[in-house]
Amino acid sequence: MHHRLVRVIRGQGATYINGTLHGNPIAAAAGLATLAELKRPGFYKALHEKADEFCKACQGVLDRHRLPAIAAGEASFWQILFTKTAPTSYADVMVSDVAAARTLDLASLKQGLYVLPNVRRFVSAVHTSDDLEDTVRALDNACRTTNT
Fold first, then answer.
1. Its pTM surpasses 0.90
2. Are 60 and 131 contained in the same domain?
3. Residues 31 and 84 in one domain
4. Which of 121, 80, 73, 86 has its CA nearest to residue 102?
5. In this model, does residue 1 exceed pLDDT 50?
6. In terms of domains, do 14 and 53 share one?
7. Could you give the number of structural domains in the chain?
8. Mean pLDDT of 38-66
9. Which is nearest to 131 in space by CA: 119, 118, 122?
């Protein structure tokens, strides 16, 4: 891995840049394309609305199965937590029923959802309505097969 000092275009001095792909033109082009998408008017509003609707659909599944869990989310982040109220701190997350969440996550894996147990998830701009509906359906099947 090589290290470079790159002169800052605005301001004085230099900044240190280090990374495996920091000089890769394909990675740079992908980064620029991503930034262009993020700058589109309404991008974040649409993403957050999609995530909110998705969390509501997941909550509906949890409620139908009478699981003592919530689909907690903020912006595009979300997670299923076995707790009664939405967390306001990391401590709230840590006192949730981690074992029950792990059981559901493992059942979700068996339904084809690639999730890391007990880790928050993200709704992405490239997730389609079909992707999210498939996820809700798989969650529903996972809830049926688990004894949480």
1. no
2. yes
3. no
4. 80
5. no
6. no
7. 2
8. 96
9. 122
